[in-house]
Amino acid sequence: MAENRIIGDAPLYTDAPIESREQDLLGRVRFAEAVADQLVSARAVDGFVVGVTGPWGNGKTSVINMALESARERDGELLVLHFNPWLYSSTEELVVRFLFELGSAISEEQNFLEKYVTLSRARAAAGRLRDYAEVVKPIGGVVGTVAAVAGGAAGRLAGETSSAIARRDAAKKALRELGRRVVVVIDDIDRVEDPHIREVVRLVNLIGDFPNCVYLLGYMTSAVARAVGEGNEEVGRSYLEKIVQAEYALPEIPDWLIHQTLVGAIQAIIDSFPEGTLGPFDEGDWQNLYLLGIRPLFSHIREIHRYANAVPVPLKSIGNEVAVADVLALEALRMFEPESWAEVGIQAEHLTATTRRFNDPDPFNAVAEKARAHAPAVRAMLEVLFRNRTFGASAKRQVAHG
After folding, report:
1. Which of 8, 71, 82, 207 is surrounded by the fewest CB atoms within 10 Å?
2. What are the tens digits of pLDDT across the range 310-320?
3. What is the largest CA-CA distance in the chain?
4. C-alpha 371, offset from chain centre
């Protein structure tokens, strides 16, 4: 996730992962290199499966890219196959496409062939994989439930004939004789609907014992476990443990780094506006709003980038009519708690009233109760915006702008 381009003078950020360790800003190089150690040194006589796990938007793909970079540097003989399973709808189809892609990668990677593998061995491995793919095509009746798959033989399709098993064994023998390691990357397993997640996990179960193949998976454990367990996360986790030999959770992003990145992004936005085009700035109000209401909303770098991309528009459209701190706070509220933001508009008169009768409903509670996950921060933000200053006049003007 890096700064991509400039519109006006305000930076816009894309969600693209980083590609190399030199780009790392989160202090994860050592973690990625530890994953690379597994990729190049794990015993893979019967295959090996590595999982990199973490919440959405927390940088799994970036870590995978850094790990691959490090692994290639350590093992120049390594062949990497990025397998994208999202275009295929069944386990049989996934297996067939995987076999063909793996065979093609082995036979077509010129650098891999010229330096490390004789052409005859590469052709033999590719041919055996394609032979097995041909007999997999007509096989139907893939085991449908996690319990059934977990109870059956690993690496077998339901309905495999003796001929299919023989071809499978021949493919495994050819991969073993190839004598070089292949890393198969399957990322973003948790980004599709539950039935497709189950198909991808079954695929890994079926081909996970291929010799000299290391599978590098990226996913959020809870999401995949719920999908695999068909709603029962505990069952799903138990099944994943049977497939993934080494699972590594991303290190948490330090709080100080979230703070530093968020403040830096906000400062860059403010600095991009010509002098006099923004509203007044009060340091005391900003400190209170930031510490009590804004900072608690952020937990991932991706959230900061989304916020930084959104803030310049309201700042420019409102101009110097509203205090800068109010715009920044209410835009954060809109992004993280849209129902609370909508309720602010409904409660605007009550929030900015100079007097309130004893038995009037509390508008602060009305807004905070709409928050999904950040009620204390929302309440604290409202107190600064509307109660602790002169009737929240500046915030009221922003609410009027919508």
Report:
1. 8
2. 999 999 999 88
3. 89
4. 24
